[in-house]
Design a protein that fits this description.
- The chain has about 400 residues and is of the alpha+beta class.
- The chain has three domains: about 90 residues, conserved putative lor/sdh protein from methanococcus maripaludis s2 fold (Beta Barrel); about 100 residues, Elongation Factor Tu (Ef-tu), domain 3; about 140 residues, OB fold (Dihydrolipoamide Acetyltransferase, E2P).
- It has four helices and 22 strands.
- About 20% of the residues are buried.
- Keywords: Coiled coil, Signal.
Length: about 400
């Protein structure tokens, strides 16, 4: 009995000693880990490029509306029932094409009466001329009195006047008859018919039947600000001083779906005065429209070259980080750490954008690896990226 407690006590002491030994070993490992220096994370690999210095064209965009060069109202010029419509609504028509027919029977009859009246008056005039010739011979022979001769002269003049009146009435009858066939005065696209066959037209007023608009070329009307107008005038004066030819600038048309119209245009005219209410000057441009794509009344934007930024600093558009409207470029500092620079952007030219403020020519702009960096971290710069080629076209500032 006395030996059992002693054995139990010895076992407890042995287990406690083992626990102390294991704890001591674990503590040594933790101490070693704490004493070992922490390894730095590997540097992020990026590519950089210096800003490219280029002359960047600045384009302005002006909202405008298309309009036909000519728009003609087709109206009934004589009274009558509309007999037929001889065109397809919305189709192209040519000058002289018959569009409508008005009932012509009454005008045929008027023409015949006018012709008969003219024939009668001409017959009477011919007889009066013969009588006057005969009376003139008798008067010279003193066979008749002066009064008788003067009466024949007056009668002959009266009949001549009546013949002229009859001739004018015949021309009027012919004209009215021709108006029963309503023809196209210009070539272009005709709209829908505004009057159906069988309707009485031309009574009391010249009834509007349809409208025709020319298709090629087509006008685009837009407004430019007074400041832009003055800038353009100064450029024109400067070009003239330098002996440059005063060629009209080519204009680009941007359609409602943001597609670029295939034909370029040019300014045709500017209005005589600046609108005092809006401070803008109405301008009209002309664009070829051989395929009839453009129709009057369309909204479109006219893009025009308004200035050129000489020696602008340009970077790839993909290098710009936009956070809630704030434009930022990441650059590599002298110590190899990433720095964020807020910048102001200028016009965009394809894959390049001009930076007007916030960037130095010596800044190494990060153009690849943007997703893996943040301000302050160290980066490893690979081979410097090549600047893109000179862009062929530019877009307005603000994109």
């Amino acid at each position: 009995m006395p030996q059992r407690p002693l054995f139990f006590f010895r076992n407890i002491i042995f287990l406690f000693s083992c626990t102390l030994a294991l704890w001591a070993c674990g503590g040594d490992e933790d101490a070693k880990k704490a004493a070992a220096p922490e390894k730095a994370p590997p540097a992020v690999s990026v590519r950089t490029m210096l800003p490219a210095s280029r002359d960047v064209p600045v384009y302005g965009e002006f909202v405008g509306r298309t309009d036909a060069k000519e728009t003609v109202e087709i109206r009934a010029r004589v009274e009558g029932f509309l007999k037929a419509r001889l065109f397809e609504e919305g189709s192209l028509v040519k000058t002289g094409d018959v569009l409508f027919e008005i009932e012509s029977r009454q005008y045929d009859e008027s023409l015949k009466r006018a012709q008969a009246d003219l024939d009668r008056q001409q017959a009477l005039l011919a007889k009066a001329a013969t009588d006057l010739s005969r009376f003139e011979a008798l008067y010279k022979q003193q066979a008749i009195s002066r009064d008788e001769y003067d009466t024949k002269v007056t009668s002959q003049k009266d009949l001549a006047a009546q013949a002229d009146r009859a001739k004018a009435e015949l021309e009027t009858a012919r004209r009215d008859l021709s108006y029963t066939k309503v023809v196209a005065p210009i070539s272009g696209r005709i709209g829908k018919s505004l009057v159906k066959p069988g309707t009485l037209v031309g009574k009391g007023e010249n009834t509007l039947l349809a409208e025709i608009s020319s298709t090629d070329p087509i006008y685009v009307d837009f407004n430019i600000s007074e400041r832009e107008y003055l800038g353009l005038i100064k450029d024109m004066v400067e070009d003239q001083k330098q002996g440059k030819s005063a060629e009209k600038a080519k204009l680009t048309l941007i359609l409602a779906d943001d597609s670029v119209y295939s034909h370029t245009g040019q300014a045709e005219m500017a209005d005589r005065a600046v609108d005092a209410k809006t401070g803008t000057l109405p301008v009209r441009a002309s664009f070829p429209n051989p395929d009839g794509i453009l129709k009057p009344g369309q909204f479109a934007k006219v893009r025009a070259l308004v200035d050129t930024l000489a020696g602008a600093l340009c970077v790839p558009r993909s290098a710009v980080v936009d956070v809630q409207g704030v434009k930022t470029l990441y650059v590599v500092g002298p110590d190899g750490a990433v720095e964020a620079k807020s910048v102001t952007l200028g016009p965009v030219a394809e894959d390049m954008v001009a930076v007007s403020k916030g960037l130095a020519p010596t800044d190494a702009v990060i153009v690849e690896g943007l997703q893996k960096i943040r301000p302050g971290i160290k980066v490893s710069v690979q081979a410097e990226a090549q600047a893109a080629g000179q862009p062929a076209a530019a877009k307005p500032a603000g994109n």
